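Follow-up to my earlier ticket, as requested here are the two runs.
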Amino acid sequence: MGFNLKLCEYAAYAMYYVHDDTAIDEVAQVIRKYLGRDLLLPGKVPPKPSGRKPITSDPWKKRNKIIAYLGTEECKNCKNTLHKWKEIVKDGEMRHPDLGFVFVAHPDTHKQWVNEFSRADIPHSVVCDYEDSFFKTNKIPEDPGFHACLLDETNTVMFVGSPIKNRKVWDECKKVIAFSNQINDKVEK
């Protein structure tokens, strides 16, 4: 399914709403640049999970996925960042079994993230972006508040915002997922 105009309008409203602490021009620029576009993604998730629990399914094959860039800024407080991601992953997978999570780490912090994911027992792989091409090619904003994207099954961006930076981002992201699923379910019937 292509990106739906109703979904695009809904997602744009949600992004304006949750990024109220960011300059409106910056949010508008991110919306224009990313919403409805495809991201160049890193290689497939390695088969070995970072946590002690096995990965039960391939996140790339899920209807929706959240791809999070774990840069050097996020690593300044790894344990707190990971604690927040663990809560979001648990909540997301419980509410939306068709939601996958992909974590892409900056090459300088990859090993640290893998160790932290293992200690936190988060059963998701951390992809090392060896050349930092995901960040550079997609021109990810410097602001860590925009270091996560919600993608549909065709890897089209439906929502941009880091749920660990602002609880409202996660709440609105779940609404966009539900709205997208509702549209997809109608199309499939």
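Run two:
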Amino acid sequence: MTPPNFRATIAMRRTRGTNFRRLALGLAALSLASVSASAQSGTSAPDYVQVVQRDADRRVDITVGGKPFTSYVWPEALMKPVLYPIRAASGTTITRGYPMEPRPGERTDHPHHAGLWFNYGDVNGLDFWNNSTAIKAADAPKMGTVRHRSVNKVTSGKGEGTLTVTTDWVDHQQKKLLREDVTFIFRASKDSRSIDRITTLTALGDSVSLKDNKEGVLGLRVARELEHLSTQKDKFLDSQGRETTVAVASNEGVTGMYLSSEGKTGDAVWGTRAKWTTLTGVIKGDTVTVAMLDHPKNPGFPTYWHARGYGLFAANPLGQAALSSGKDVLNYGLGAGKSVTFRHEILILNGSKTPAQVETLYAGFTK
């Protein structure tokens, strides 16, 4: 007889797969719709940023010159809203497809790593970072979820568009711990795309503790080509979408390299402080530099970097003890009704960039 818990697991995986397939179909169809609508409305100028709200489809689409840039999505299959996918000015996709739109040759680890997101591994003892439909039922009460509440405003325009949203950070019983108010600023030029994420967290009802934890806070999961070279055993997708364990990973097409403002490179960036970090690589012949910038007004500045060679690119100003082997301790807290704001910018740039060029861009961001 098949054990009940096994049947439940299989049912959960089938449901999760159906949800992600629906999302993938929606992404493809709505990207085409966005291009068509943009052209018809006369907003297909090369640098026109159009932000289109589609509540019924649980998404907001952002196009540039009628071509897809990114989308703010809150599918039922994810435990937080994300920006996904994200494209460079050339059209090259810089984000991993798995788990929403799996591509051959991708890693199948960490199903909670999807697009660009913001959350944390210890909020009043709850883990918001690792929550996904893949967790065991017994672990669900230990997890937190970021629930999309509302799209508050969208604006479109030449070179820039904006989106403001509100989310709720809730526990397993749907009790609200934090309100999150976010302003996204999407900018475009001939050779670049950028995303400003201005995030304000407000404690609701009770005080909120964000104890030092390595899992946080602004995370981006990048395409396979932007990972570092690896010789480790891992699981990848084959051309038929099947998960396959590979004894030693193939490094074909893998070209990524981190560089921090403090001169650290590669895996040495992890667990160090820096005001910005870049990740440069070649995707299908297209050289791309992704930069993540930390603002001087942010708590814990300059941030520690939870940047991994396998494709997780994350800035974590709150996990200081975990990332410094106890040298620094923050244990950030918010009193009831109190707020804190984080400002970050993500740049997607054509070509490789020198530290001096990134410094110039950083100076513009901090002003």
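The only thing I checked on run two: The helical segments are 4-40, 320-323, 355-366. Let me know what else you need.
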